[in-house]
Amino acid sequence: MVKIYGIKNCGSVKKALNFLESKGIPYTLIDFKTTPPTPQDLEHWLKFVSLEVLFNKKGTTYKKLGLKELQLTPAKIKEWLIKEPMLIKRPVIVHSNGVIVGFNEETYQKMQG
Question: Which InterPro entries match (predicted)?
């Protein structure tokens, strides 16, 4: 079963859900607003993608918090991602072959439940 981490009203999450539904791939949506990721989730994701990929520096949360001005170490970035899940690039897709971050139809084609 594929797990999608994100928020329901996010455009990229909606595209991912539509893609999975169109391919008949079963999934579970884990909403960051009701079920924030755990440090264990984060460490698992980081086995497949870099911190740079996960850390969304383009979003409004990043700008609102003024994180650009801070010299964040990898450890501090991890703390922020757990404390403020909206800083995580969405969606995070966990599937049998690994983890995909963001929406990319070409990458999704290679995914198997």
Answer: Arsenate_reductase-like, Thioredoxin-like_sf, Tscrpt_reg_Spx/MgsR
Write down the catalytic residue from 2, 4, 5, 10. 10
Instruction: Give Cβ neighbours of residue 51 (< 8 Å, ≥ 6 apart).
Output: 74, 77, 78
Hey, what are 12's tokens? 């990229």
* 10 included as an active-site residue: yes
Q: Which CATH number fits domain 2-109: 3.40.50.300, 3.40.50.720, 3.40.30.10, 3.50.50.60?
A: 3.40.30.10
Q: pTM of the predicted model, to two decimals?
A: 0.92
